[in-house]
Amino acid sequence: MGESKSGIRSEVLRRREALGGLLRGRLGEKILGRVRGLEEYRAAGVVLAYAGVGSELDTGGFLREVVGSGRRLVLPRVNREERRLELYEVEDPGRDLVPGVWGIPEPDPERARRVGLKEVEFALVPGVAFDRRGGRLGHGAGYYDRLLGEARSLPPLIGAAFEVQIVERVPMEPHDVFVDLVITERGVWSREWR
Questions:
Q1: Cβ atoms < 10 Å from Cβ of 94
Q2: Angle, in degrees to the nearest 10, between helices 60-68 and 21-36
Q3: Residue pLDDT, tens place only, 7-54
Q4: Among the four residues 10, 13, 71, 164, which has the most C-beta atoms within 10 Å?
Q5: What is d(CA 185, CA 30) in angstroms, rounded to the nearest whole number?
Q6: Would strands 97-99 and 105-107 be described as parallel, antiparallel, or unpaired?
Q7: What backbone phi and psi angles, to 5 degrees, belong to 113?
Q8: CA 171 to CA 175: how far, in whole Å?
């Protein structure tokens, strides 16, 4: 696999797509089961997550469970003009989301309340590729790195992905943000693991 971010991104997306929908669904349930079992998740009252699309982890059930368990659910909305993510509390993922940038379901600002990252106690962060030391590669727009990089303090950052998304090393730049844990169907790796 190429060392460039674009080369890694292309290869990992190809591998993820090749899993097929049924296998992705089974593996996704196992991965999200590991997320639900984390002490950091069980202790959190406010959870930042994302609506998975395409060959991403299907987070729909997880989002409903967060709300159903009495936790506050926070989802991102892309502000393209300012090239940043805005966070909104969502009470009903089935009702409060609308198609946003790139067709990704996002909170409807007419139905959801804007919140700050400082309110979040646990964050499930999307990514195209991860490494076992917490390196994360997104789609290349830098939205999450800007959101997380500007914060004074961060909640636990969790990267949940299929094992085919794990690479030897994600090239990280100074502004890139590491996640604290990487979870796949095969295990959980802590950033301290190295």
A1: 10
A2: 30
A3: 999 999 999 999 999 999 999 999 999 999 999 999 999 999 999 999
A4: 164
A5: 6
A6: antiparallel
A7: -100, 130
A8: 12
